[in-house]
Amino acid sequence: MIEIAGQTYALDDPLVMVTIAGALALLVIICLLIIAVRATARSAQVTAPLAQQIGVLGQHVQQLGAGQEQLRGGLQTVSDTQATAQTQVIQTVEARLATVQQQMQDRLADNALRSARSLSDLQERMKETLHGSSKQTTTSLTQLQERLAAIDKAQDNITKLSGDVLSLQDILSNKQTRGAFGEIQLHDIVSKALPKDSFALQHTLSNGKRADCLIHLPNPPGPIVIDSKFPLEAYEALRVADTDWELKEAVAKMKVAVTKHINDISDKYIIDGETADGALMFLPSEAVYAELHANFPDLVRKGFDARVWIVSPTTCMATLNTMRAILKDARMREQAGAIRSELSKLVADVDRLGTRVGNLDRHFSQASKDIEEIKISADKAGKRAHRLDNFDFEELSPDEAGNVVPLAKPES
Using CB atoms within 10 A of its CB, is residue 269 exposed (0-12), middle (13-18) or buried (19+)? Predict the structure, then answer.
């Protein structure tokens, strides 16, 4: 409730509410008017310096207009000067361009002439080069043909060698042909190392066994047998073994094969009173021989115990050369008497030759003396003939005047 001038009004009365709202709106308007008046005063204070600045700016604008007029005149002057200079530059450039164009034309003509000369020289060199290349190509083709012919020949040899290798493989794959191969190789080695009368091939012994080769050595040691053996299957199995079991089987197979060969040679080819106290087992392969000595020393010792010595082509040749020296020594001992007889005859011949040389020397001495005397006589005869030839032209010496024979006067 509000009491105004002794009259009471309710706050929820619409009229009261409208009146209060109007009073508030009026109060707000009054406040705004006061604020506006104060802002206007302040704007007037701020506008005064701005007006002064606008005046100053107007003066500057007038000065700028005058400067613009001066700038327009300067630009006109610069434009005229630039036009004149541009005209001069264009004229100068045109003159220089004409000069440069003339120089370029001269240089182009000179370059064209040089290019023509260079092209001509290049063509000549190309002709010479092509001619030389043609010769070289012809030579190279000829050499290539020769080399191709050589290659064809080598290919034929390789083909032939391949066939020989296959034939060798076929030979080695069969026991009989492999044995024949070993016997042929043994025969070749023995025939090169020993005289023909010092060995016998396929010799039959008293026990009926046939040896591959019998060397006729003197006693001791006596004739010695060489038999060829080739345990190729055991060696191949040893070479291709991959597992421990295969290696063990191959080693056992090698030992059995070599032991059998040693025992066979010892039993068949060592005969008391007929052959030497030992025999040789010939292995046609250096690889098998090296394998035995490298990894099977017990087999080598077993051969020594059985008096069977294992040899390869190389060691067999060395052994045969030693036997050749033994044969030569034995034959020299057998021929000792004949050698002594021949030496006695040689001494007599030497003595006889000495006597005859002495006689010949005496004959030569006598002949030399006779020749000297003949030369003296010939010299004297020459001198006398010379004197007779110059008789009428010589002056006689006083001591020779008595020796002159006077000429007889002609009869009237």
Answer: buried
User: Coil, strand or helix: which one is 281?
Assistant: strand
Nearest partner of 321 among 207, 406, 149, 198, judged by Cα: 198
Tracing tokens 């077993």 back to the chain, one arrives at 302
Tell me if 171 sits within 8 A of 177, measured CB to CB: yes
Contacts of 303 (CB under 8 A, 6+ apart): 262, 281, 309, 310
Tell me the CA distances in angstroms from 110 to 101, 273, 386, one per residue in order.
14, 114, 98
Quickly tell me which residue has 């500057």 as its tokens: 60
Asked if 182 and 284 count as a contact pair (C-beta separation under 8 A), the reply is: yes
Helix (H) or strand (E) holding 309: strand 308-311
pLDDT top residue among 161 and 82: 82
* Contact yes or no for 182/314 (Cβ under 8 A): no
Angstrom distance (rounded) from CA 343 to CA 339: 6
Q: What are the pLDDT digits (tens) for 111-154? A: 778 877 877 787 787 777 777 777 777 787 788 778 777 887 77
For 125-136, the pLDDT digits (tens) are 777 777 777 777
The first and second tokens of residue 49, run together, are 């310096």
Tokens of 239: 């070479």
Would you state the torsion angle of the CA atoms of residues 130, 136, 139, 140, taken in this order, to the nearest 10 degrees? -110
Beta strands in 90-216 (DSSP E): 199-204, 210-215
- CB atoms < 10 A from the CB of 304, how many? 13
Tell me how long the chain is.
412
Q: pTM above 0.70?
A: no
Q: pLDDT band at 22, cuts 50/70/90? A: confident
203 beta partners: 211
